[in-house]
Amino acid sequence: MTDVYGPEKRSAVMRRVKGAGTTPELVVRQLVWRLGGRYRLNRKDLPGKPDIVLAGRRLAIFVHGCFWHGHDCARGARVPKANRDYWLAKVGRNRVRDVAARAALEAAGWRVETVWECDLKDAAALEARAKGWLAHHPHRNGGRG
To answer: Which residue from 31, 34, 43, 98 has the least number of CB within 10 angstroms?
Structure first.
């Protein structure tokens, strides 16, 4: 099956896909802020340029779209019929990059959390997770949490 758009139109559509400041990211940022977490966004000096960084807590949070990062939920498992090979390769590269970024951060002593787009459906569970992230503070108790 061929693409429903021509190359110029497809390029314009893809340029509109946001890489930062997405709705799921904004929801997580608001939650972390409400729970008392203070953060920086998209630190370029860290592997993978995490969406949310709480440096004092050595916590990096990635907010991933299920489709773009190949989550194992229904939305993430969907592969477009048009240009299927391209999309499988694209999502595969994203997943490899995500694993490498996580490993590099953990090797440097960072805690890494991933929030999937579908996690936002259960606000109470997400809030409970976020409270757990923020309860751990490496500078207290000699770094033992």
So the answer is: 34
Give residue limits of the domains in the chain.
22-37+82-136
Contact, 61 vs 116, CB < 8 A?
Answer: no
Q: State residue 63 phi and psi, 5-degree precision.
A: -110, 110
Higher pLDDT pick, 12 / 26? 26
SS3 116: strand
How is residue 119 annotated by DSSP? G
Write down the pTM of the prediction.
0.83
- Copy the structure tokens of residue 19: 């890489």
Query: In this structure, are strands 40-41 and 52-54 parallel, antiparallel, or unpaired?
Result: antiparallel
The average confidence (pLDDT) of the chain is 88
End-to-end CA distance of the chain: 54
pLDDT digits (tens, 9 = 90+) for 94-104: 999 999 999 99
Q: Read out DSSP for 17-68? A: S-SSS-HHHHHHHHHHHHTT---EE--TTSTT--SEEEGGGTEEEEEE-HHH
CA pair distance 75, 91, nearest whole angstrom: 13
